# Entry
Amino acid sequence: MSADEPAGRPEEPAAKKGAEPSGVDLARVALRAAKEQARARGDAVQQKKQARRGGLRSGARADGRDPMALGAAINRLLTERGWETPAAVGGVMGRWPQIVGEDLANHCVPEKYDEDERVLIVRCDSTAWATNLRLLAPQLVARLNEDLGHGTVRFLKVNGPGGPPRRYGPLRAPGSTGPGDTYG
# Structure
């Protein structure tokens, strides 16, 4: 410090920005790095000793070899494989009556979830219930996304009842479109 500078003046801003640590800061960084390296070497040496004595053993502290609860193991597997969304949608299909209500669940059943398009396909037992569900679709999609996470279901595709298989043969009227409206 020179005689021209005041005693309480902070360091230059250029020295603070992006400068290498110096003095005490440099010593702290070096000490922290040395401690981490020593800890890693100590763990490796201890594992080698245990391996020579007859195998690795679990100690008082938790490590990756300790047993885990079934729920925790399943959650870990779902996370590692990226199956969170399909598992959540599968849970929705199991809890369909609680989500949409008993009355609607008696007439409409979720059939399939397309993960790529994020579309839930629902089949209704009559065209009247299909129309009703199409009117309720925005509220139902909002409720499903609230339960599953934002953006999990983008669209609800509602299918009407499936009629009996078409029979082709001599009794078929030319130009007919097939079976009628509702079979439920």
Observations:
- The chain is about 45% helix and 10% strand.
